[in-house]
Write a structure and sequence with these properties.
637 residues; Serine Threonine Protein Phosphatase 5, Tetratricopeptide repeat; 23 helices; 73% helix; elongated
Length: 637
């Protein structure tokens, strides 16, 4: 191998530096009609370096000369970071043959990455394979451990792109093992593979070596998180994702908005597992870190500059996405609290409420210990801001209306933020999903409200926000969304009807209801039937026929809608025997539909066990009631 001080070697180093500059800097400015121009130039330089190294190798083998080995005192100084004016060749006890193999392997690695970047995957895979073959001649040392990890990272990415997650897992777990074993056995900052092609005066500092090596391992963890997710190993994926985010903060190597979105996404996993302290921490960190991306440009500035317009768009969208994750946090916290508190008729169980209060007092005592056990983002610059934001929303289950309302208001605030970007004009689906979450927040808050009149007003708010959207949507393009809205509106009107009747019954029995109350009750009943029927009609063929076989995604909703329509018809309050008979016949018709459909399709019974049982009972009782009513009508005539 040529001397590190020779003109020949300096020429190799200069080519490598130029190739790196073309790849990392110049390629960013390549024209759209020639997007890989700079990378093709870099490839030619790398090929020239490869040929030169092979010629050096041939000369060394013929002459029997060895690469320059630094004196022991120079080697120690280089490893300790006291100075860098020594060659990397021969450091860490590597043999000259090992050094030559590592340098050729590094060039193969860079050629492999180059081909992958230019969308030539088979060629890229071949070069990475060559790199692995050359490294088999070496032992893992501080001279080449970085290259070992980088090439396995790249092969992990490559195989993951081929949907070969298990192969990717193998390469990445080996990279992880390389890092952990090296840190256990040595732990000193290893040589970075770019230093293979550096002149003595351009060697990296101790700190820079540490940073690059840790960043390579951070990439290993990031890719493993993706692979574990693809393999369905969600717990491991979450752990690796959380550790990746923490390391990125520690190394100060992250894009604020990208980091924030990843943290917000991770929060959704914790929420599904009921780990609200971790979910809240991720969301608080996401909100704080996203603020480091700067203020959203004004609309005026965005109109004047294309760059500012794009930046405004990106910041607005990503912060609104984080806001939507906050909405899910608040909604799921309330829903899970309701599950714990709900009795068998849908009201708050006071015994469970007291048990939860006691459990919460214990939880508060242990929360600080729990926080220390959790994986927290303890960046010095942001920790106080994150902790301050966390204090504004609880992570323990609310047990009464006051606490539930506090969570609701946080969620509602983020609804407002999310809707600023995801407006109806341009983001129909997103806007409606946010409205549905807002409606769900009102619905679960109503569970905690003891005042029936206030609870009814909450449901009215839901109707006011969903009904106009449902009626305006084009059924041709948004059929599934309209069905969701119809069903929710039908259920909401049904809830309001029950509440109105309960309020009236507190003051008098059903027979003594005043005409205004009866009118209101029947109007709510009619509105509920209307939307259930609209949902059922949306299932009909263009010829107006109901399908003989209901698809799985609409099976339960369709049968439940039939059951609810039947119950609603039997609950209308009317003094007219003719109207009573008409309502009872319609109720019987819908009960019989549920029974007959499940008889024809036995597998459907499992989806509506309770409704089917009640339908069968009512299908047997209603004919008797209808006959008695007909008999009375005949006598009166």
């Amino acid at each position: 191998m040529a001397s590190v001080n020779s003109d020949e070697w300096r020429a190799v180093c200069e080519k490598f530096t130029n190739a790196q500059n073309l790849t990392e800097v110049e390629s960013l400015n390549d024209p759209k009609n020639d997007p890989f121009r700079s990378k093709y130039k870099a490839r030619e330089l790398l090929r020239e370096i490869h040929c030169t190294l092979k010629s050096f190798e041939a000369v060394d083998e013929e002459s029997g000369t060895e690469s320059r080995q630094p004196p022991p005192e120079e080697e120690a100084a280089a490893v300790d970071g006291q100075h860098q004016d020594v060659s990397v060749e021969g450091l860490c006890g590597d043999s000259p043959a090992g050094v030559r193999a590592a340098k050729l392997a590094a060039v193969e690695y860079y050629l492999g990455v180059n081909h992958i970047d230019t969308e030539e995957l088979p060629a890229g895979q071949e070069h990475l394979g060559n790199c692995m073959t050359l490294l088999q001649k070496c032992t893992v040392t501080c001279y080449n451990v970085s290259l070992y990890i980088h090439v396995r990272n790249q092969l992990g990415i490559l195989w993951a792109g081929y949907d070969e997650s298990e192969k990717a897992q193998g390469f990445l777990e080996t990279a992880e093992s390389n890092y952990q074993q090296y840190m256990k056995d040595d732990g000193s900052p290893p040589i970075d593979m770019t230093e293979y092609f550096c002149t003595e005066e351009n060697m990296l500092t101790h700190q820079e070596r540490v940073r690059r090596f840790e960043l390579a391992y951070t990439h290993t963890m990031y890719y493993l998180a993706q692979v574990y997710k693809n393999l369905g190993q969600t717990e491991r994926a979450a752990t690796y994702c959380h550790s990746t985010l923490q390391r990125q903060l520690k190394l100060n190597q992250y894009n604020p908005m990208e980091w924030a979105l990843n943290a917000a996404t991770l929060s959704q996993y914790y929420i599904t597992k009921g780990r609200y302290m971790e979910g809240r921490h991720c969301l608080s960190a996401a909100t704080v870190i996203s603020g480091l991306a700067g203020d959203i440009p004004s609309e005026a500035a965005a109109q004047e500059s294309e760059i500012e317009s794009e930046r405004r768009e990106q910041l607005s969208q990503k912060r609104s996405e984080i806001a939507r994750c906050w909405i899910k946090y608040c909604l799921n916290l309330l829903l899970d609290a309701r599950k714990l508190l709900e009795d068998n008729i849908g009201d708050i169980d006071s015994d469970r409420q007291e048990e939860l209060r006691i459990a919460r007092r214990r939880a508060k005592e242990d929360e600080e210990k729990g926080r220390k056990r959790a994986l927290l983002f303890d960046s010095e610059d942001t920790f106080d801001s994150i902790a301050s934001l966390e204090e504004k929303v609880q992570c323990l289950f609310p047990v009464d209306f006051t606490e539930a309302r506090a969570v609701f208001l946080v969620g509602q605030n983020y609804v407002t933020q999310a809707k600023e970007y995801f407006q109806m004009d341009g983001y129909v689906t997103d806007h409606i999903e946010i409205l549905q979450d807002h409606s769900a927040l009102f619905r679960v808050l109503a569970f905690f409200e003891e005042d029936l009149e206030r609870r009814c007003k909450m449901h009215k708010r839901r109707v006011d926000m969903l009904e106009p959207i449902c009626n305006e949507l084009n059924a041709q393009y948004y059929l599934m969304i309209r069905r969701q809205l119809m069903f929710e509106l039908a259920e909401t009107y049904n809830d309001m009807m029950d509440l109105k009747l309960a309020l009236a019954n507190r003051q008098a029995d059903t027979q003594s209801l005043d005409s205004h109350t009866i009118k209101k009750f029947n109007l709510l009943c009619t509105s509920s039937v209307k939307y259930f029927q609209m949902f059922l009609d949306s299932l009909r063929s263009p010829e107006g026929k109901m399908p003989e076989h209901l698809e799985e995604e609409v099976l339960r909703p369709a049968l439940v809608a039939r059951f609810r329509v039947a119950r609603l018809h039997s609950r209308f309050i009317t003094s007219s025997p003719t109207d009573q008979l008409d309502n009872l016949n319609k109720a019987l018709e819908n009960y019989k539909y549920v029974v007959q459909y499940c008889e024809a399709h036995p597998e459907a019974g499992a989806a509506v066990e309770t409704e089917l049982e009640l339908s069968m009972e009512m299908a047997g009782l209603l004919p008797l009631k209808i006959n008695r009513l007909k008999a009375r009508m005949a006598l009166n005539n």
